[in-house]
Structures are given as C-alpha cells and as structure tokens.
Design a protein that fits this description.
CATH superfamily: Intergrase catalytic core
Distance between the termini: 53 Å
Strand order of the largest sheet: 1-2-3
Order of helices and strands: HHHHEEEHEEHHHH
Shape: globular
Largest sheet: 3 strands, antiparallel
Number of domains: 1
Strand content: 5-15%
Structural class: alpha+beta
Length: about 220
Amino acid sequence: MRGIRRAWKRPIAQKAPAVHEEIRKIMDAVEPQTLKGLRDRALLLLGFADAFRRSELVALDVEHVTERSEGLEELIASSKTDQEGEGQIVAIPRVEQSPYCPVQAVSDWLVTAEISSGAVFRSTHRGDTVSSARLHTQSVALIVKALAGKVDLEASRYAGHSSRSGFLTSAARNRASIFKMADQSRHKSLDVLREYGRNEERFEDHAAEGLLDRSRP
C-alpha cells in the first residue's frame, strides 16, 4: 500500500471547514418558517457548537439531551473514540439574544415538530411533514452542501465534516485552549488539534518577518 501511495502521489482531498462566519451566513438563508428549515438550522448549529461527527448527530435521541439554564448537556452514547459505548457528555452554552443560539434552535425544532422521544433529527416529507425515520449520515452531507450552495459558497468543497472542522478552526483562531477544544471534539490525541492551531499561526512571528523590508537596515 505504501508503494501504491508513492506511485500515485495524489494529495488528500480536503473539505473546507465551515467557520463561524460561514455558519452565520448559511443560517441567514435558512427558512425558519418551515419544519425543514428549523431542522436544518438546529442540525448545523448543534453540529458546529458541539463539534459533532455526522454519526453522532444522527444517533442523538431526545433522551440524551438535558436542557439547563446554562445551556444543553448531551450524552453521546457511542462514538468513534468511545468504541466501548461508555458514553461521553458534552455541553453547549446558551447564547442569549443571538439568532444563532444552538440551544434555542434545537428547542424550536423539537417543539414545533412535536418530537418528545426518539431521534432528534429526522427526515422530512414533501408537504413539510416530519417522518419518524432517523436522518441518515449521508443526508447530513447533502444538507450542508445544499445550504452552502444557497449562499454562493462552492458546495463541492463542503461536507458533513465541515461544521466539525469549522468549529475547531474557529476555536483555534480564537486562541481557545487545546484542552477545551479536546473536551468538545473528544479527540483522544492532541496532535490533530495542535495542527489546527499551527494552521492558524503559520504567519505569526514568522522567522522571515522584516528581513526583506526596505525600511530596515
């Protein structure tokens, strides 16, 4: 396999992170007066704020979500980094007076769709009715692509992972603690998260800074 990789030498196709500015732009284009719009809004805001993997988003049940005055606590029953299924709890703070509050978006979706148990995110039918069927992981990617295209972003560059990587990229730009990032993303290895930080700091305090500046002796 190493020989094949050396022979092809093709770069790994990287999907674009949906950083917080793009998430806001996409949210402004969602139609909140429809059930589908409310679902998509909750899906993307929660996926971003919780750094959820697609599989974790679609596996989330109402019984896993606890609303508190500070925000939401969510139990991730099993995930890529929790193969034993011990469960991990993540928290999302409430963003008061913000149209992009993920806590409010989830509440609006569940109340309007009259979902009180079972899958949080479900498929919708024509006529804007909600199915009992759990949303599929591939559907998450299609929703992200469709919404990205709707606001003139290059849809092919985005995927279901974009909200997760977008959160980590945005957090790194905001100088968040790598350990706090790990708490949210549930990465076992910090090396991946360090790379997000390095990507955002490549031009800071660069070794060549000022060397070709005409104003310097």
